[in-house]
Amino acid sequence: MRKKIIAGNWKMFKTVQETEQLITGLKRELSDYTKVEVVVCPPFVNLPVAADCLVDNTIKLGAQNIFWEQEGAFTGEISGPMLKAVGVDYVIVGHSERRQYFHETNETVNKRVKAALKNGLLPIVCVGENLAEREGGKTFDVVNDHVTGSLAGLTTEEMQKIVVAYEPVWAIGTGKTATSAQAQEVHKFIRETLAKMFGQPVADATRIQYGGSVKPENAAELTAQPDIDGALVGGASLKVESFVGIVKNTKV
Prior knowledge:
Oligomer: single chain
Strand content: 5-15%
Shape: globular
Number of strands: 8
């Protein structure tokens, strides 16, 4: 049985003080709620205070990116040992905004995934098509390319530590949401692709999140689908009420 996972990607929002306020509110509402695994992913500078706030709490801490070298002359980058030392559990890898604005490729995403695993971090690996690709009928080609490229060379044991997040880029921050049927269709395809790469048991055990304008109002319908195991939440994760609503509306 796959435990549903809801992760909040805060992107470039929240100061240190706002981080404390938001996590305090989440702890108040979710302190005894263990039906769903909950992860918050603040900006790098807020990770230490977030870790302090989450001591002895079931809410897990995630980072939004990782560099593939352990250390070195890589100005502006953050390494796995740095994240691990702060108390990070998860790390988002290959988010569509990283691919779009910072020119990440399957190859660099793959290197980041391996760096995360090397340092005992659990990768949330993002895949998904943009609007032109969706309208051009290329959804499955793009998703297949992202999945096979981003996860290339991993062992079955390593794959068991990974969460995949399907994010239709055309539905991120646009207010548009894939219908539950559209999302399920792609999630099922991702699981079939994982089965070809790693075997059916690993594919059946892998959690696949949906990310794209998830709200409390659509969380239940989306997560009721057989292959949707949670959500990677953007804007709605920045407020206690909306994020808690998504967590508690998730079908378990």
